[in-house]
Backbone:
C-alpha cells in the first residue's frame, strides 16, 4: 500500500504542473490584464472590458504613446513601465511562470494586486462560507439519501418507491440557482413569508448573543443556502444508494443467507450494507469537493455570501493573477489529494480491495 500511495503522490506533480501550464498559457492570450485594469481606472474608464469593446482606435492609444494598453491615453510611458515592473510583467512569460511555481512549491502565494492582503489570508477569510456550504450540504445529503435509498431498494416497485422516485427526479432536474431563487421568494421576504434572512452567515448582533443564541443564529442563516446546495447532491446520491443495494440484494450470497434462516434485517445490515455502501461512502470526499467548489458562485451571489466562489469570480474579472493562480493551485492540489483519499476509503471500508495487485 505504501508503494501505491507514493506512486499516486508522485503522479500529482506532473498533473498539477500540467494544470498550471495550461491555465497560465491561456491567460497570456486574454486581453485586459491587471496593468490595463489600473490604466482604465486612472483614465476614468471604469472596467477595462468596456474599453476592449470600444473599437480598434482605443486599442491603439494616442499619437506619441507607443503603449498598446487600453486606457493608456495621455499617460507617460515611464509610468506604464513602472506599473509593469510592479506587477512583474517586465519579465518574459517563461521566467514569470518558473518564479511563480517556485514560490508555490514553498506555499508562498504572494499578495493580491488590488486588495493589499496576502492570498493565503484572503482565502482563509473566505473559507468559512465555502466550508459551511460544502460540509453541511454533503452531510445532509448523506443523512437523507442513505436511509431513503435503502428503503427504496427494499421496497422496489412499491407505491412508496414510485412516488419518491418522482420527487427525486424532479429534485435532480431543478437547477440549484433556480431552487435558491424559489426559496428566497417564498421564505426570505420575496413575495410571501419572511422567515429567513437574506444575506450573511450571522446577524449584526451576533457577538452579543449567548453560545446557544450564536448557534441558532448561524443555523438560521445557513438554512436556505444549504438547502439550495443540497438538492441536486441528495437526488443523485439517493438513486446511487438504491441501485447499489439492489445489485447486492439480488446476489447469490443474499439468497443463501435467507435460506439459512437469517432475518431480513440481519441479512440487510449484516451482509448487504457493507458491500453496497462501498461505492456510496467512498464517494464522500469527491462529493464534498464537488459541492465545495461547484456551483458555489451562484449560491453565494444569490444569498449575498462572501465565499471562495465569489472570490474566484472577482479575481478573474479584475485579473488579480496572484489570487487566480494561488487558488487554482490550492484547489487543484486539494482535488488530487481527495482523489487519493477516495481510493484509501475504499480500502478502509473493504480491506479485500488491493490497488497494488490491480496495477500489477
Residues:
Amino acid at each position: 500500500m505504501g508503494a501505491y500511495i507514493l506512486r499516486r503522490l508522485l503522479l500529482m506533480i506532473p498533473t498539477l504542473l500540467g494544470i498550471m501550464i495550461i491555465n497560465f498559457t491561456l491567460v497570456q492570450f486574454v486581453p485586459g490584464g491587471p496593468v490595463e485594469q489600473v490604466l482604465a481606472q486612472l483614465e476614468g474608464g471604469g472596467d477595462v472590458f468596456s474599453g476592449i469593446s470600444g473599437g480598434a482606435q482605443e486599442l491603439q492609444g494616442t499619437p506619441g504613446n507607443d503603449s498598446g494598453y487600453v486606457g493608456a491615453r495621455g499617460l507617460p510611458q515611464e509610468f506604464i513601465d513602472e506599473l509593469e515592473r510592479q506587477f512583474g510583467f517586465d519579465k518574459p512569460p517563461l521566467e514569470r511562470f518558473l518564479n511563480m511555481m517556485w514560490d508555490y512549491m514553498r506555499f508562498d502565494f504572494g499578495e493580491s494586486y488590488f486588495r493589499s492582503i496576502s492570498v493565503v489570508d484572503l482565502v482563509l477569510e473566505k473559507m468559512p462560507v465555502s466550508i459551511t456550504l460544502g460540509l453541511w450540504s454533503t452531510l445532509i445529503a448523506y443523512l437523507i439519501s442513505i436511509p431513503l435509498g435503502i428503503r427504496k431498494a427494499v421496497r422496489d416497485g412499491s407505491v412508496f418507491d414510485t412516488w419518491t422516485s418522482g420527487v427525486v427526479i424532479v429534485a435532480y432536474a431543478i437547477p440549484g440557482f433556480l431552487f435558491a431563487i424559489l426559496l428566497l421568494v417564498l421564505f426570505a421576504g420575496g413575495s410571501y413569508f419572511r422567515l429567513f434572512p437574506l444575506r450573511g452567515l450571522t446577524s449584526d448582533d451576533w457577538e452579543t448573543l449567548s453560545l446557544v443564541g450564536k448557534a441558532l443564529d448561524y443555523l438560521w442563516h445557513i438554512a436556505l443556502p444549504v438547502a439550495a446546495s443540497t438538492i441536486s447532491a441528495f437526488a443523485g446520491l439517493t438513486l446511487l444508494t438504491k441501485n447499489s443495494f439492489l445489485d447486492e440484494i439480488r446476489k447469490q450470497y443474499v439468497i443463501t443467507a435467507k435460506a439459512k434462516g437469517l432475518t431480513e434485517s440481519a441479512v440487510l445490515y449484516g451482509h448487504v450494507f457493507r458491500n453496497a455502501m462501498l461505492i456510496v461512502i467512498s464517494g464522500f470526499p469527491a462529493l464534498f469537493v464537488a459541492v465545495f467548489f461547484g456551483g458555489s458562485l451562484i449560491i453565494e451571489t444569490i444569498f449575498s455570501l462572501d465565499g471562495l466562489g465569489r472570490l474566484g469570480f472577482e479575481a478573474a474579472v479584475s485579473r488579480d493573477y496572484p489570487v487566480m493562480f494561488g487558488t487554482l493551485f490550492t484547489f487543484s492540489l486539494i482535488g488530487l489529494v481527495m482523489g487519493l483519499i477516495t481510493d484509501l476509503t475504499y480500502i478502509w471500508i473493504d480491506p479485500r480491495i488491493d490497488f497494488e495487485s490491480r496495477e500489477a
Remarks:
- The domain at 120-359 is CATH 1.10.3720.10 (MetI-like fold).
